Amino acid sequence: MMIDLMLAASSSHPEAELALHIDWLELLRWCLTVVFMGAGLFFVLAGTLGVLRLPDFYTRLHAAGMTDTLGAELILLALIVQSGFSQMSLKLLLVALFLLITSPTATHVIAHSAHKEGLEPILGPYKAPELDEAE
Amino acid sequence: MALNLLQIYEKVIVSAFALCVCKLKTFRKTLSLTYNFKNGSFLRFVVSLTLALAATWLMLSGYFKPMLLTLGVISIATVIGLCHRMKIIDFETAPYQTTVRSIRYFAWLFIEIVKANMQVVKAVLNVNLEISPTLVRVPMPQTTDIGRTIFANSITLTPGTVSVDMEDDEILVHALLSEMSDPDDFKEMGERAAWSVGETHIPLENKVK
User: Fold this and answer.
1) Please, what is the end-to-end C-alpha distance for chain B in angstroms?
2) A2 located within any domain
3) Does A127 reside within a domain?
4) CA of A16 vs chain B CAs: smallest distance (Å)
5) How many whole angstroms separate alpha carbon A100 and alpha carbon A48?
6) pLDDT truncated to tens, each residue of chain A (135 aa)?
């Protein structure tokens, strides 16, 4: 659809004006998809960075949780908008719902087993070490 | 063809419910020991569970061919039968009476999730990575298992807080930032979670003492 638009705008064909009939609903849907997908990818990226940067097991769980909630949900929302009102979007909604139930359960199981095994969390204020200290 | 089949389904469903009613009258005593009648009757849970299962089947298959519909009816009947044998047809299996409350709670929770995500993103992408992990004990005001599960899962679902352990009436919560372990926030979330499953609210102060 976007390619059609670009072609219509660039062609010097006399019927180009006729081809510039824009389907606004479709355009809005595309924009929303891009916005949601971009935001979702940002949160997934931030979650990944967090898993790499944070100091211990428990704090890394929080970063992973960020990917589970807003990251995955926003990407699913983008897919729902893209598929329109159909059976597929209902299925995607169901996937989103299941994800919201299962991901905290899994996180809790991991945290609980670590706590039971006696893994001590880092507590109190923490700052990233300076680069020279780390070497 | 399709109309006849629909009539047959209607008869099957009606007779299944009639059977349930008969059983209910016969085994009322044993049932009342097994099932929780506090939030509604047994038949109500069967009906709501059947409707939910039928909706799920139709949503996932999307076909209205007679053979596939028959298979759907058979599987729904099997599931209901299995649930009945396992004696788990109660409010926890079919919590659909509080759907409106659940949706409202979820809308509130989603806003909280977005806010918490912003905080965690800021903390994680900070150059100095200024975090202050804390462990706090949060009292649970809920009385039912499902209310407690929803509360603990909501805590974990909100980024920055993870419920680690459950002891007696308290949840051990690990928070990424110390400002996230504010007891008032947990209190509000706990009360809303209890409200979302239709619990009559018990003031938190009375429970702690």
Assistant:
1) 66
2) no
3) no
4) 41
5) 19
6) 666 655 555 555 555 555 667 788 888 999 999 999 999 999 999 999 988 988 888 888 888 888 888 889 999 999 999 888 888 888 999 999 899 889 989 999 999 999 999 888 888 787 777 766 554
Rounded to an integer, what distance in angstroms lies between the CA atom of residue A36 and that of residue A71?
A: 10
* A7 domain-assigned: no
pTM given for the model: 0.73
Range of the structural domain that residue B8 is part of: 2-86
Residues B110 and A73: beta-carbon distance below 8 Å? no
**Domain count of chain B?**
2
Q: B196 and B111, same structural domain? A: yes
Asked which of B59, B86, B113 is the last residue of a domain, the reply is: B86
Q: Which residues of A touch B129 (CB under 8 A)?
A: 53-54, 126-128
Distance from CA of B154 to the nearest CA of A (A): 8
Look at residue B93 and tell me if it is in a domain. no
